[in-house]
Design brief:
alpha/beta, Rossmann fold, 2 domains, six-stranded parallel beta sheet, 19 helices, binds uridine-5'-diphosphate-xylopyranose
């Protein structure tokens, strides 16, 4: 019989997981407390931008294989497997992970499960959470049903979420029994049949794999960005340095792109939550380096703001600045902790007239920072600009040439915040170019 799957939490992770599970042939119900989100998803309307996902959503809502509900009772008596994909945002008080949504979903589920089931956590949680939740499930669920917990962290990247879910680069099962492992093997049979590496382990290791991976990626980015501070001072080319490092197979070139640094809904909060958790465990200095990783990352934003001031002769007030890109990365409309939006907002607060264009991120950015100007094309953003800032490396921006912008701008000045342009080409065309990791001499 076809496995019945519920996915609790229909945000980025949950909506993607639900649609991909339907694509793999399972019967799926997505559950959320947000009625508006559920209504939209039920009509095949995806509330965020993710390439390839709208098509899957529409296809499976139409086929009837994918449904959505706000009612836990509906899934508690129906699904064989319940995936938990709710958010674990940063807690304002201590920068730890806020587990209220995870706790609430487990409690609600436990009360409504009326048939044997496996509950599978996918959310990113502090180590120790799964073992605690297994206890909650055991205590709160009916004595006549067999409910077990497993932890199966999610590594999907925004922009590649469908591929990362259907064909992940590895699978991690944190389990307490062979039965749970067997059930997860059924769910992921297709990927396992394609020789996807599988790690079967305990809860703690499974939880740690996820935060360790994100901490490593953040560290790699801040590592190259720390060298940017050096090359900005002594000269040298940060891109060539990264290329040369990347040829060492032990290091690898990926995640060594120097620029305004990392943002988004995962890396920043996950490295902070990890530090908080490890301190709670009494390991006060173990993750101190992540504090530096965070600081280096945030200093990149200061650097762009300071370059903008320098390029405008320290008189930013009233000057027009075009910002190309506000999403935290290309192929996404997500502006959570976006370095680009932060820089745009700070320059606005310094008195600049900031005009933003992002192919997908304008609407989300407008909600967070309504006072910036938002336009629908590069040409409109660049019109009469004294300075252009390229802050998210959309392909559309990477392909820009001096001739594309020259007719619109008032000043031929540009900061390449992602190191994606051919700087020599722009300089030959008479532009003043500054980039992160590159020495900048305001006198030219
Ligand atoms: C990340 C992890 O990659 C993913 O495995 C996890 O499940 C969730 O968090 P995501 O947040 O989608 O995914 O973004 P990612 O592609 O990792 O990029 C994170 C940030 O780092 C972006 O702001 C990006 O611009 C920045 N970045 C990335 C760099 O500044 N330089 C690089 O070389 C790579």
């Amino acid at each position: 019989m076809t496995l019945r799957i519920s996915v609790i939490g229909t945000g980025y992770l949950g909506a993607t997981h639900a649609a991909c599970m339907a694509e793999l042939g399972f019967e799926v119900i997505g559950v959320d407390v947000d009625q508006d989100k559920i209504s939209r998803l039920s009509q095949g309307d995806l509330p965020f931008h993710e390439p390839g996902l709208p098509e899957l959503l529409v296809k499976h809502v139409r086929s009837g294989r994918l449904r959505f509900t706000t009612d836990y009772a509906e899934v508690g008596g129906w699904a064989d497997i319940h995936f938990i994909g709710v958010g674990t945002p940063e807690r304002a008080a201590d920068r730890g992970a806020d587990l209220r949504y995870v706790d609430a979903s487990i409690q609600s589920l436990a009360r409504h499960i009326t048939r044997d089931a496996l509950v599978v956590g996918k959310s990113t949680v502090p180590v120790g959470t799964a073992r605690r939740l297994a206890g909650v499930l055991a205590a709160e669920s009916r004595p006549d049903v067999n409910v077990e917990l497993a932890w199966n962290p999610e590594f999907l990247r925004e922009g590649f979420a469908v591929k990362d879910t259907v064909s992940p680069d590895r699978l991690v099962f944190g389990v307490d029994s062979g039965t749970a492992e067997a059930r997860l093997r059924e769910v992921y049979a297709r990927a396992l049949g394609q020789d996807t590496p599988l790690v079967v382990t305990d809860f703690e290791t499974a939880e740690l794999v996820k935060v360790a991976a994100n901490a490593f990626l953040a560290t790699k980015i801040s590592f190259i960005n720390a060298f940017s501070e050096v090359t900005e001072t002594v000269g040298g080319d940060i891109r060539t340095l990264a290329d040369a490092l990347g040829f060492d197979a032990r290091i690898g070139r990926k995640f060594l792109n120097a620029g305004i640094g990392f943002g988004g809904g995962c890396l920043p909060k996950d490295i902070r939550a990890l530090q908080t958790r490890v301190s709670e465990l009494g390991l006060n200095h173990t993750m101190d380096f992540l504090h530096n990783v965070d600081d280096i990352n945030l200093r990149r934003r200061d650097r762009v703001v300071s370059l903008a001031h320098q390029m405008l002769d320290n008189s930013v007030a009233g000057r027009r600045i075009a910002v190309l890109g506000v999403a935290f990365k290309p192929d996404s409309d997500d502006v959570r902790d976006s370095p680009a939006l932060d820089v745009a907002g700070r320059l606005y607060n310094d008195g600049a007239e900031v005009t933003v264009y992002d192919p997908e991120g304008n609407d989300n950015a407008r909600r967070r920072f309504p006072r910036l100007g938002y336009v629908d094309s590069v040409a409109d953003a660049a019109r009469d600009a004294d300075l252009v800032l390229l802050l998210t490396e959309w392909n559309e921006f990477k392909a820009l040439t001096p001739a594309d912008l020259a007719p619109q701008v008032r000043g031929t000045r540009l900061v390449d915040g992602r190191n994606v342009l051919d700087h020599a080409q722009w300089e030959q065309a008479g532009w003043t170019i500054a980039a992160l990791g590159r020495r900048f001499d305001p006198a030219g």
